[in-house]
Design a protein that fits this description.
about 500 residues
Length: about 500
């Protein structure tokens, strides 16, 4: 009997202990779960706010959307418009409500969600987040001006552009709209941590990153390249090998109107031939915009139509790069879009390498700075061609599909050891070498891998007349190709804003 009594008492005590342990575990675990749910809800609201900044005009939210007493439920369709399809899972994701308040030029969006999925919610479940948004920037800028405080030309802005500040948020851009292009600190090209000016323009795409394409401002500059002796390691080119001086307005003068030092030259990318008429005098420009990433996503349909048009002619990219194909709603009177030329490629490669300070393998600025230019180290086409010559040695006409690209040809040079062919641009040019295109000046020797960082360096000829950049994942490499492409390839476009 005594043994049985002891067993019963022990069992009761054990049950009490188990109940206490379970209670303590549940008590301590509830706050952890609650905090995790709250964090996830806050993250969801931040993602929604970033998407609204980028895609507000696509959401059909008029000025009367919701009130504090009667907020509007963000719909499944809205989530897909914003590229946030994961949040459209209404069975597993708590609902989010929105209402908007108007205060002058600004709208304040108020978002309300919950930490858990329930049938009925209480006030303690709510997670709130508010942010301000402005439809348009305060002003455009068609006037060429030098920013005295920044020491660089102000970006030219047309009405179709929304200036933004981009930072990385995990693997996605975090977008901050710029409200005032004159008063806000949204670019800096002269610091050790550069922040280049970015804008976004509505595109024809349908995906998350394709409703708008981002562009980066390249301000007018002069450059100098340090040449190396035979013992230099061309696989380890320091950033100091390219020196950059930003220029005032459309001139060839420095910040305080000083003449540029000896050894520097104005980069030829800042010459613009209106409507591609290379027979006219070029116009000096204060800068240009270049596509931040490859023209893809929104342009995928264009690539497909190009393949259907002529599968062997990827140089239909010249057509694809037109403004009406990439940005059909943009004002063509203010802005011109072109396939990036070989010389313009060089300008962004030089500026990227010189201002990053820690490029060690020819990679693009974007790896360190969300405001920079991405994908300079991938295969893509540029507007350039080696033009053939007739029986008298005169260059033939430029191909009709390259109305504004870089023109190369080979000129016969008489030497004591015999005639040799040297690459140049125009027949009446005395110099046989052309600098500023990121080819000859950043290569050494005649091998096919003599570009900086050991990149491919194959010069164009009349049989392989076109140029592809970013070959072998190096922003200094270049390769001559035939019109029929091989190994894939894409392209970037540049935008020229017509100053007034």
């Amino acid at each position: 009997m005594n043994n049985k009594g002891i067993s019963v008492i022990s069992l009761v005590i054990a049950i009490i202990i188990i109940v206490l342990i379970t209670s303590i575990t549940l008590y301590t675990g509830i706050p952890i779960i609650s905090n995790s749910n709250k964090t996830m809800a806050e993250y969801r609201l931040r993602a929604i706010s970033n998407a609204i900044i980028a895609y507000e005009r696509e959401l059909n939210y008029n000025d009367s959307v919701g009130t504090a007493d009667n907020p509007r439920l963000i719909s499944v369709a809205d989530y897909y418009t914003m590229g946030l399809s994961d949040y459209a899972d209404v069975e597993n994701v708590p609902p989010t409500y929105i209402y908007k308040e108007i205060d002058g030029d600004f709208k304040t969006y108020n978002l309300i969600t919950y930490s858990t999925v329930k049938v009925n919610y209480e006030s303690g479940d709510e997670i709130r987040f508010s942010f301000k948004y402005q439809d348009d920037i305060i002003d455009s800028n068609f006037k060429v001006e030098f920013d005295e405080s920044k020491g660089v030309n102000r970006p030219l802005i047309c009405d179709d552009m929304q200036p933004v500040i981009l930072t990385f948020d995990d693997d996605y851009y975090k977008v901050q709209s710029v409200k005032d292009i004159y008063d806000e600190d949204w670019y800096d090209y002269n610091s050790s941590s550069p922040m280049w000016a970015n804008v976004m323009i509505k595109s024809r795409g349908e995906g998350l990153h394709d409703k708008y394409l981002y562009y980066v401002w390249i301000p007018r500059f002069a450059y100098k390249i340090s040449y190396f002796d035979a013992n230099t390691d061309y696989n380890n080119i320091p950033a100091s090998s390219i020196s950059i001086i930003f220029l005032r307005g459309n001139t060839d003068y420095m910040k305080n109107n000083e003449v540029i030092p000896s050894g520097y030259q104005v980069h030829p990318a800042f010459k613009y031939y209106e409507k591609g008429d290379t027979s006219s005098e070029p116009i000096d420009i204060s800068g240009f915009w270049v596509n931040k990433e490859l023209v893809g996503g929104g342009a995928e349909a264009l690539f497909k139509s190009a393949s259907e048009h002529d599968p062997s002619n990827t140089f239909y990219a010249y057509e694809l790069s037109k403004l009406e194909n990439i940005h059909p709603d943009a004002n063509s009177e203010d802005i011109e879009s072109r396939l990036i030329s070989n010389t313009q490629w060089s300008a962004i490669a030089y500026l990227s390498h010189a201002t990053v300070g820690n490029v060690a393998d020819g990679s693009s600025l974007g790896e360190w700075n969300a405001s920079g230019i991405f994908n300079l180290d991938s295969l893509q086409y540029v507007a350039a061609v080696c033009v053939g010559t007739d029986s008298h040695g005169n260059p033939v006409s430029m191909p009709s599909y390259i109305p504004y690209g870089d023109k190369y040809y080979y000129k016969t040079v008489h030497t004591q050891s015999g005639d040799v062919l040297e690459l140049t641009y125009v027949s009446d040019e005395k110099e046989t070498l052309k600098y500023g295109d990121g080819m000859l000046a950043t290569s050494v020797g005649n091998s096919v891998n003599s570009a900086w960082f050991g990149g491919t360096s194959v010069k164009p000829t009349t049989s392989i007349p076109y140029i592809m950049r970013g070959y072998d994942r190096n922003l200094f490499s270049y390769n001559a190709i035939s019109r029929k492409p091989f190994g894939g390839g894409a392209f970037k476009n540049v935008l020229i804003i017509k100053d007034r």
